[in-house]
Amino acid sequence: MSAQTPEVRSTEQLREKWMKPEVISGSEILLRSLLLEGVECVFGYPGGAVLYIYDAMYGFEDFKHVLTRHEQGAIHAADGYARASGKVGVCIATSGPGATNLVTGIATAYMDSVPMVVITGNVATSLIGTDAFQEADITGITMPITKHSYLVRDVKDLPRIIHEAFHIASTGRKGPVLIDIPKDVSAAKELFQPPGDVQLRGYNPRTVPNRLQLDKLCRAIGEAERPLILAGGGVIYSGAHEALYEFVTRTQIPITTTLLGLGAFPSGHELWTGMPGMHGTYTSNHAIQQSDLLINIGARFDDRVTGKLDGFAPHAKIVHIDIDPAEIGKNVPTDIPVVGDVKTVLEMLNPIAPAAAKADAWRAQISEWKGTHPFKYQDSEEVLKPQWVIEMLNETTNGEAIVSTDVGQHQMWAAQYYKFNQPRSWITSGGLGTMGFGFPAAIGAQMAHPDRLVISINGDGGMQMCSQELAICAINKIPVKIVVINNQVLGMVRQWQELIYDNRYSHIDLSGSPDFVKLAEAYGVKGLRATNKEEARKAWAEAMDTPGPVLIDFVVAKGENVYPMVTQGSTIDQMLMGDA
Amino acid sequence: MSGFKHTIAVLVNDQPGVLQRVAGLFGRRGFNIESITVGQSEEVGLSRMVIVTTGSDTTLEQIEKQLYKLIDVIKVINLSSKPMVARELALIKVKAEPSARPEILGVVETFRASVVDIGANSMMVQSVGDTGKIDAIIELLKPYGIQELTRTGVTAMIRGNAQ
Question: Which domain of life is it from (chain A) (predicted)?
């Protein structure tokens, strides 16, 4: 069964209806403007300051509104929708506490460059600044975590502001834009006229790169003996995965993809070295450290990737391709900077890029590393190993599902053992590392792709941060398969306490968690449990056969660690490999 | 390498909250603001901020790039990389019994500053100049007893046709 999403209604007729110049309220202007931006689904939660907006939505069916159980659920769902679809995610909340409940989700989207338009209500303009009931300066609070924000003071500005917000959110380096609408503005009547072209003098993202830099890069590829591509989320955001594939196959340069870049390149390809960084592959980390040419495509040299900066890729000439000039040279000094949209850059490069002809020995070395140092763990017949659970999910779905996660051990195991082959099928909070993100994000992803299999992989900690959204899965028949990797502990914190804090296990015991099967059933979602391999296979098969949402509580080994691991302050080739 | 002083001019949309955006960016990215001035520019709807900051060349490059990411920022110019005129205004209320006034007036005259108010036992001195000059006149007036002091921070422009 598929999620209930609205039919696409953007026919010319409807468009004409929306475009008709009429005197309507600010709230109706908002709804029409959203429709004109192509919005099909919004996630939200009503409250006093947005009642005019919700009143305008009464009986309104031109887009679907999903009522979550918490504003945090709404914003993460909008985020998941955006990541899975490539469209702008939209979220509505009321003023004050409604708006502040969005903060974590806005920061999550900002860190991972996710296009979102966040609409908050505010108290009437006459009350702003008086500490009125449910007033919060949400534009002020979110200024550091939005790409841009607006406080709408006049209903006349509303159509232009919404149009600008969508433009800003979805172009250049994408990101969340907040529109704060006071209650009197959403009530005020005004002649609606659809806005013209966006004109923002201070905003001209440069998409086309400097040709001379591309020529330099091509020369460097021809000369390199140990070249490596480091590809990140930017490849997926710009829709450049096909151009990247062509670039790799033409140049025959080995490629590592960051956590957010998983799915940008097929994991089965012989030139793919896996994920780099703190829990990355031996091959990727050693390849980075020994490379003589490192081509960063749409990644931002996050500290979880670079480890100790002083000593990162010490022999490499660094190339950095990014749409955001501020990323170039921010963490790692760059030899060949290329500012531009990743897709545009790769499409310009592909016809001129030479093969890395001097790199045969290097490719052989990488192939050898891949063979001798795969991810590994000690399997068990007595207890369920979390890595095995992920491998089972991968095998039974053939790597075709959309997978979302929270942050922690389960996230790293999913990144290591699930084999992604398509873009936009891996939804995870990389930059902010947000617990509670994965499950609502999976709901959003399922709204974007009603017919695809969506698996939400959670820890038992993160599952409890947004578990209330089980309700919307049940009510809206959103068929997300919810996997809880249950080790009764805050696993990643436990791992750090074991390895770095001398086994001092401070406040990580999650005993007292609810019975997840009963919790699911309490919301009307089917719940299953597995404690060994046989039960696990059976439960998963049953989940796959069940239309609608299912939660499976996989009770796994408690003391399992994520390996390899690079501890902080080490260079990335100084890896703890575990004892498997 | 954190001691270098840079003066940058930032042309911004005259929007509510734009000062907060710019100042907030400096704060959260750990950039230092030594002084910041804002006022109208030659074009309606645009304001010009002049910011004095300290940091290495790499820091300055990041500051410029990060400022450009703000939608309301239209242009960033590193003034101190070119010949520039930088001026600051200070008002200094100095204790001045009638007997001490001639001496104080001597200082004021030397610095081409001016007295803009006289009270029963104080004088208000206005001084315009580069930061060094203002620092110097304050030093010289200190012995008389400074009761109140306010400085505007630097505003600046590139000389003549230098680009």
Answer: Bacteria
Cβ count near A400 (within 10 Å): 12
Edge-to-edge strands, sheet with A526-530: A426-427, A402-405, A454-459, A481-486, A550-555, A526-530
Q: Which of B24, B62, B74 sits opposite A330 (nearest CB)?
A: B62
pTM of the model: 0.95
| Known active-site residue A265 | no
Angle (CA) B80-B83-B86 rounded to 5° is 65
Average pLDDT on A77-105 reads 98
What is the per-residue pLDDT for A11?
61
Neighbours of B5 (CB within 10 A): 13
- Residue A71 a catalytic site member: yes
A211-373 and A11-192 share a CATH fold: yes
**B17/A147 CB distance under 8 A:** no
Answer whether B16 sits within 8 Å of A200, measured CB to CB. Answer: no
pLDDT of residue B3: 67
pLDDT tens-digit map of A472-523 = 999 999 999 999 999 999 999 999 999 999 999 999 999 999 999 999 999 9
- Homologous superfamily of A11-192: Thiamin diphosphate (ThDP)-binding fold, Pyr/PP domains (3.40.50.970)
Answer for the pair B60, B6: CB distance below 8 angstroms, yes or no. Answer: yes
Query: What pLDDT, on a 0 to 100 scale, did the predictor assign at position A17?
Result: 75
Contact A151 B16 (CB under 8 A): yes
Angle at A401 between CA A395 and CA A406, to 5 degrees: 100
